[in-house]
């Protein structure tokens, strides 16, 4: 497997770090999750994350599979000693504390580099390790708000106010950024023999995902007028339309061939020329026509109408429909383990050495004893650590 022989120390909680390290575990890395025995991984909690399957929360199952768990109090001398020994032989360390916390614990980048110059050290935080916003507390929605992207999440029908985005995009974009950076650093280490320090910001991960929407800001020095922008509701061919049964369909491509196929099929070729032009006021008559037209049939009827036509579109599926789709099952993005528990599959589909998902979930500190057996610890430190195992 691609990451066989790589050992990862995971000090992160919730989503960005754990999602990145789970991806590494799926591809063969040994991931050792360090948990505070008094305050373990929050996604284990059925109170905070009530949807459970097989005795574990769905959130925990889909961010923590295939990892080992060691229970350490990093404020204690024994916990610090154990982490120090783990670091000496590890390849990667991932942490997602608020900036400054890990250094106060004695495991900042310089301290870790002194222990192991080959380690790739990745910090994930809301706004990064420097800058005026460094110490602002934030989770996903707040960082997306700071990126400007939340302001664009209004309905194309003109409903006022931004809407919460349905996916934790700053969490997941920063997770992928972290994974990419870690793998780059591991590759470079093959040449230099040295690791590196990676500072990943959730906020910046969203900013970096904005090339298609940033034109008015960079070129016009102003925020976009949504209904004048093709990707925010100002284009007839990138828009959402309600059907007769109060379902929705999305048009998702404005190339000329799609424009022709749609409006010729609807017997309104007069709309082809304006819709092929820039988004904005020139599209408004066509958008009005499409809104009225799509309200005349049910979603199922429109599915039959679109069949065989070269038009970029899709029904707006609810989450259950989306995860039950034949395509999702065929591509193994949803699969069940031997106990019947559902898992999100791995999207990195290599032809050679594909992911081999280990569905096992470790209890808090389950692997502590085995892990510390391989560490150079004093008997007193070993005893203190074992006392903390829940």
Describe the structure.
With 390 residues, this protein is an alpha/beta fold. The protein folds into 2 domains: 7-208 and 338-387, 3-Layer(aba) Sandwich (Rossmann fold), CATH 3.40.50.10540; 227-324, formyl-coa transferase, domain 3 (2-Layer Sandwich). Helices cover 39% and strands 14% of the residues. It contains 18 helices and 13 strands. The chain has helices at 16-26, 58-64, 77-89, 101-104, 109-115, 140-147, 169-192, 202-207, 215-220, 230-234, 256-265, 272-276, 284-294, 299-306, 319-324, 326-330, 368-373, 379-387, and strands at 7-10, 30-35, 52-53, 56-57, 68-71, 92-95, 120-125, 196-201, 238-242, 248-252, 313-315, 334-336, 342-344. The strands form 4 sheets. A 6-stranded parallel β-sheet has the order 5-2-1-6-7-8, sandwiched between helices. A 3-stranded antiparallel β-sheet has the order 9-10-11. It has a two-stranded antiparallel ribbon with strand order 3-4. β12 and β13 (342-344) form a beta hairpin. α1 (16-26) crosses α7 and α3 packs across α18. The mean pLDDT is 95.
Measured between the Cα atoms of the first and last residue, the distance is 33 Å
**Integer tally of domains:** 2
What is the number of E strands? 13
Determine the CATH superfamily of the largest domain. Crotonobetainyl-coa:carnitine coa-transferase, domain 1
- Stretches where pLDDT is under 50 for at least 5 consecutive residues are none
Question: Which quaternary structure do these chains form?
Answer: single chain
Q: Briefly note the CATH topology name of the largest domain.
A: Rossmann fold
Strand content: 5-15%
Order of neighbouring strands in the sheet with most strands: 5-2-1-6-7-8
Classification by helices and strands = alpha/beta
Rounded to the nearest angstrom, the radius of gyration is 25 Å
Net shape: elongated
Reported CATH architecture of the largest domain:
3-Layer(aba) Sandwich
In DSSP terms, counting alpha (H) and pi (I) runs of 4 or more, how many helices? 18
Helix-residue proportion: 25-40%
CATH class of the largest domain: Alpha Beta
The residue-averaged pLDDT reads: 95
How would you sum up the major sheet?
Answer: 6 strands, parallel
């Amino acid at each position: 497997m691609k990451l066989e022989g790589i050992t990862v120390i995971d000090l992160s909680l919730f989503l960005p770090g754990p999602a990145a390290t789970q991806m590494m575990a799926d591809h063969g890395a040994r991931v050792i999750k360090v948990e505070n025995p008094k305050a373990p991984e929050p996604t284990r909690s059925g109170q905070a994350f009530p949807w459970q399957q097989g005795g574990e929360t769905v959130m925990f199952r889909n961010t923590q599979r295939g990892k080992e768990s060691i229970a350490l109090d990093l404020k204690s001398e024994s916990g610090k000693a154990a982490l120090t020994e783990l670091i000496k032989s590890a390849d990667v360390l991932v942490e997602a504390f608020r900036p400054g916390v890990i250094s106060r614990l004695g495991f900042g980048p310089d301290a870790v580099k002194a222990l192991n110059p080959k380690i790739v050290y990745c910090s994930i935080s809301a706004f990064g390790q420097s800058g005026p916003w460094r110490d602002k507390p934030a989770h996903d929605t707040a960082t997306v708000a700071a990126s400007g992207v939340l302001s664009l999440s209004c309905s194309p029908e003109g409903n006022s106010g931004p809407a919460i985005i349905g996916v934790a995009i700053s969490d997941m974009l920063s997770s992928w950024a972290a994974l990419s950076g870690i793998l780059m650093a591991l590759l470079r280490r093959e040449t230099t023999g040295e690791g590196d320090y990676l500072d990943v910001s959730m906020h910046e991960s969203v900013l970096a995902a904005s090339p298609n929407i940033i034109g008015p800001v960079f070129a016009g020095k102003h925020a976009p007028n949504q209904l004048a922008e093709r990707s925010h509701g100002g284009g007839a061919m990138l828009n959402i339309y309600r059907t007769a049964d109060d379902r929705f369909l999305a048009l998702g491509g404005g190339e000329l061939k799609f424009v022709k196929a749609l409006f010729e099929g609807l017997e309104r070729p007069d709309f082809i020329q304006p819709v092929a032009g820039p988004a904005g006021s020139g599209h408004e008559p066509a958008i009005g026509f499409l809104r009225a037209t799509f309200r005349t049939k049910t979603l199922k009827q429109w599915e039959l109408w679109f069949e065989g036509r070269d038009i970029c579109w899709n029904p707006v599926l609810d989450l259950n429909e989306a995860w039950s789709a034949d395509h999702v099952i065929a591509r193994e993005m949803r699969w069940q383990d031997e106990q019947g528990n559902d898992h999100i599959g791995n999207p990195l589909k290599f032809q050679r050495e594909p992911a081999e998902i280990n569905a096992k979930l470790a209890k808090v500190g389950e692997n502590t004893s085995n892990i510390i057996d391989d560490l150079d610890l004093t008997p007193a430190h070993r005893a203190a650590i074992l006392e903390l195992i829940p």
